[in-house]
Amino acid sequence: MKIIGLTGGIGMGKSTVATVFRRSGIPVFDADATVRALQVKNGRAIPRIAAAFPDVVRDGVLDRTALRARILSDAGAKRRLEAIVHPLVRTAERKFVAAARRRHAKAVLLDIPLLFETGGERRVDLVITVSAPRSVQMARVQRRGLPIADIEAIIARQMPDAEKRRRADVVIRTGLSRHHAISAVRRLIQEILP
Ligand SMILES: CC(C)(COP(=O)(O)OP(=O)(O)OC[C@H]1O[C@@H](n2cnc3c(N)ncnc32)[C@H](O)[C@@H]1O)[C@@H](O)C(=O)NCCC(=O)NCCS
Ligand SMILES: Nc1ncnc2c1ncn2[C@@H]1O[C@H](COP(=O)(O)OP(=O)(O)OP(=O)(O)O)[C@@H](O)[C@H]1O
């Protein structure tokens, strides 16, 4: 079974590319969705987050905006949060890959924004990076209503796009039309899984 890693900065188009894989019948592990599932009311990560950051959890409910503000202004807080969340995401990923093997899947896609930052490229056979010009990235994320200062802070805390492209086996450019990106992904899937 081929294990494919998908990464890219915020708003670069990971979810869009992942959807093409899913529609081709390839199981997709979504690290962001896993993080969110761990952080729902009384979710698995909540007791530990509450212990480390008492002011961002109330009645088992996490204030994501407050926690985001905290980790964007404090590198130590970001490391502490990641030390809580990443091992739980890793466990979920392992279970996902094991289940796909049992079902004899030909391939799986691991959609992980921090793939390189967490050394995840060592666990995959091929890394895809999605990339678009910075102006396109900013415009997309702004449409979600995130303040510009927050977007810039998030980008500054991720590995630079140029470095991700350099490390990737395949770069999918999403700055052109959606059709262009989707066609490139379809061709790639054909090459990977003849
Ligand atoms: C701080 C939290 C609660 C903010 O939640 P919020 O709903 O505002 O944002 P969301 O989770 O949708 O993330 C949006 C984007 O921000 C970026 N991002 C999130 N966490 C991080 C991080 N630790 N470092 C760099 N970029 C990050 C990713 O590109 C992500 O796609 C949340 O992002 C979180 O718990 N992050 C820590 C876990 C983590 O490292 N996640 C990254 C995926 S493994
Ligand atoms: N090739 C493309 N052409 C035009 N728009 C695109 C393309 N790819 C993605 N988009 C748009 O850009 C936005 C961000 O894309 P997407 O949600 O796939 O990014 P992401 O990398 O998963 O983001 P995040 O890291 O924040 O979760 C979405 O509104 C999507 O519709």
Written account of the structure:
With 194 residues, the protein is an alpha/beta fold. It folds into 2 domains: 1-27 and 105-194, Rossmann fold (3-Layer(aba) Sandwich), CATH 3.40.50; 32-98. Helices cover 54% and strands 14% of the residues. The protein has 9 helices and 7 strands. The chain has helices at 14-23, 31-38, 46-52, 64-73, 75-102, 134-143, 148-156, 161-167, 178-192; strands at 2-7, 28-30, 57-58, 61-62, 107-111, 126-131, 170-173. The protein has a 5-stranded parallel β-sheet, with helices on both faces. A hairpin with a 2-residue loop joins strand 3 (57-58) and strand 4 (61-62). Helix 1 (14-23) packs across helix 9 (178-192) and helix 2 crosses helix 5 (75-102). The model has no long low-confidence stretch (mean pLDDT 96). Bound molecules: dephospho coenzyme A and adenosine-5'-triphosphate (ATP). Dephospho coenzyme A binds next to helix 2, helix 4 and helix 5.
